[in-house]
Amino acid sequence: MRLTSIYTKVGDKGTTMLAGGRKVPKDSSRIEGYGTVDELNSFLGLLRDKLTQFDSKKFSDIVTCLLKIQNEMHDLGGELSTPHEVLVKSKQQLVGQKDIARLEQEMDSYNETLEPLSNFILPGGHELVSYAHVCRTVCRRCERCVVTLANTEQIRDEARIYVNRLSDWLFIIGRTIGSRLQVAEILWQQADKP
Fold it and tell me: Half-sphere exposure of 106 toward its Cβ, with a 13 Å CA cutoff?
């Protein structure tokens, strides 16, 4: 694929074209869905860059995982920009069960190195931990967008499940980053309770 012109003027009137040529308003649930995927992908790139700048050796495994996930997010954005009736599964890269299973395996592996949780934790403690939590919360919003879209249009279950699993992965990665930095987790303090 070669992009010869970045501006097309197609969206000047508040509409855009989906894969397959259907024109939709730029505030449609489909555009909101893949736009939020794109936003999440940008934050994942920021987290990856920050981890690399801080200590590329200490976080090399996480950086590698994030790059793989960013490519999968690009695949997911492509899928969400393609109406189901023109989606050709054999020709388009799609997140699938193997990707979901990989996230689960990575979560289990990272979780084995962490202290069990006995309370809710607050985002923070270190800038890198906070970046992971920003990614997690944008991922949760992305999931809500995919669910909203799935209420009106046909979306593969794997797309929704992948984003749900990814938010859990990001929570565990935030904890893992904090653990490697030896940063104490900030526990949620309920009012009138120690």
Answer: 24
Q: Tell whether pTM > 0.70.
A: yes
What are 15's strand-pairing partners?
25
State the greatest distance between any 2 C-alpha atoms of the chain, in Å, as a whole number.
Answer: 62
The class (CATH top level) of 25-81+90-113+126-184 is: mainly alpha
Domain ranges of the chain: 25-81+90-113+126-184
* pLDDT tens-digit readout, 14-50: 766 666 657 765 677 888 898 999 999 999 999 999 9
Give 38-43's long-range contacts (Cβ < 8 A, gap of 24+).
38/73, 38/77, 39/138, 39/142, 40/73, 40/135, 40/138, 40/139, 40/142, 41/70, 41/73, 41/74, 41/77, 43/131, 43/134, 43/135, 43/138
